[in-house]
Amino acid sequence: MTTVRNPLLDLVGIDLPIIQAPMAGTSSPAMAAAVANAGGLGSLGVASGNAEAAGKAIAAMRERSNRPLNVNVFCHQPAKPDAAKEAAWIQRLKPEFDRLGATPPAALTEIFRSFVVDDDMLNVLVAARPKVVSFHFGLPSAERIRALKEAGIVLFASATSLAEARQGVAAGVDAIVAQGYEAGGHRGVFDQHAPDDRLGTMALTRILAREIDLPVIAAGGIMDGAGIAAALELGAAAAQLGTAFIGTSESLADEGYRAALFSDAAHHTTMTAAISGRLARCLANRFTAFSATVDTADIPAYPITYDLGKTLHGAAKEKGEFGFGAQWAGQGAPLARAMPAADLVGTLAAELDHT
Hints:
Blueprint lengths: L6 H6 L5 E3 L8 H9 L4 E4 L5 H14 L4 E6 L8 H17 L19 H10 L3 E5 L5 H9 L3 E6 L2 H10 L3 E5 L5 E2 L14 H11 L4 E4 L5 H9 L4 E4 L13 H7 L8 E3 L7 E3 L3 H6 L12 H15 L22 H13 L2
Parallel strand pairs: 1-9, 2-3, 3-4, 4-5, 5-6, 6-8, 8-9
Antiparallel strand pairs: 7-11, 10-11
């Protein structure tokens, strides 16, 4: 394939304008390595684990590849516990546990730490020096950004608006990931309580390409070479694909998640905060149906809510029920393909070359 070089590809050291999204809980070291070895940017989402787990995942990827790696962290504000709201939420979902013959937890906890306060994670990243570290839900402090940059790490920041992108520029990041409303997984807004204009990927990409002086990476709803080509035509330096990689051999998605992805549920993705405590786009399932009956004001803080969501999903899986899973997927889900990750990258590159 003949690819016009652009500053982002040279900065990161990749051959193709294809980035595999860092899907916490779904992307794997094997997936990241396969994508990297095929010429794209492989990614790991480490936000749902601790620093030790992140270090092991980075090492496992590097056993399979010496190519560039992107490691993604979440920069949300730490949760503010509300015991009464959390107790009410447990009671709200108790009937589902009862139907499964399971017992809900007596209390909920903040199951993972935000990077904005996680010194151990910072130390692991500075020591491991992945080629890229990317931020979601906001930005860390200037001190943390400085420490990463002094380690020679390239920084990406997700943005759902021009205002958020400008904050990333001001903070000194090297590229902006333009996350459209159609993207799967967690909506990356910096302030989940502020108004959201819900810009789509293509509109947001074009706005950012015109208004900011950094490479823009289009993310959301892109599943094939035609989608990548459209993003590049609008000024993106690369495209980031997540849902496209859920069905790959290296994905950590369980059998229920995969089955749902290749079912009619893919045509009915919806936003829900009931699973984790923050809005995220999910395949239509039992949890999204339940969430339609919930007032968002009753949902505890993120990621405290996730504690109950993960427990319910675990109890349901033991009974062969996968409908309570965090089956994150974007609006392009009906275009998903099942194949090894390296084959998918090769297919995407061929499709892009023929547009």
